[in-house]
Write a structure and sequence with these properties.
81% of the residues lie in helices and 0% in strands. The protein has six helices and no strands. It comes from Sinorhizobium americanum.
Length: 179
């Protein structure tokens, strides 16, 4: 038991010695530290230095603005070129679309005229072979008497499909968009 007590007292002494040394170091005046302060500067020299720094900052800011302006002008030119290219493509596409729509209108009118002159049984056989949407569009453009004759010559299934398409075209709850 006395060995343990001696051991604890030895540790306590070492801790106390370290604490005392640290306290003495903190209490010691800063004899070894150097107090370096800037030499006093005249008021006129301070103004001159400040003026010099301000002039440099203004010139640097102006230069930075010029570089930014140049970059923006370059970007604007690039955007303008892209817009011009897109406008050219748009004009080409609109021209192509107009020519296509004109062709489709002519083809549609010609196709309807072809089916107008056909006998109902022949027209029914041909319309059964095309897509139902196209067949319905053609039947809708024919006179009602001829359309009824063609539908009566078709198979019941095909005639029902075409009738559904035609009736949904006149349904007000159906979207006007073809998609």
């Amino acid at each position: 038991m006395t060995g343990t007590l001696t051991h604890l007292l030895g540790k306590s002494r070492r801790t106390l010695m370290a604490l005392a040394a640290a306290t003495l170091m903190l209490a010691m005046p800063g004899a070894f530290a150097q107090d370096v302060t800037a030499p006093p500067v005249e008021n006129g020299a301070t103004n001159e230095i400040q003026q010099f720094c301000t002039n440099i900052a203004d010139a640097a800011r102006d230069q930075r603005y010029l570089l930014q302006r140049k970059d923006l002008e370059t970007l604007q030119a690039s955007v303008d070129e892209r817009i011009a290219a897109l406008e050219k493509r748009r004009a080409e596409y609109e021209d192509w679309l107009k020519r296509r729509n004109d062709f489709l209108k002519q083809a549609e009118l010609g196709l309807v005229d072809i089916y107008k002159t056909m006998k109902p049984d022949a027209a029914a056989g041909k319309l059964e072979m095309v897509r139902p949407e196209i067949a319905a569009a053609i039947v809708m453009k024919l006179p009602a008497r001829q359309s009824s004759l063609i539908l009566s010559e078709m198979s019941d299934e095909k005639a029902a499909v075409l009738t559904n398409i035609i009736s949904s075209a006149s349904d007000p709850s159906t979207s006007k968009e073809p998609s």
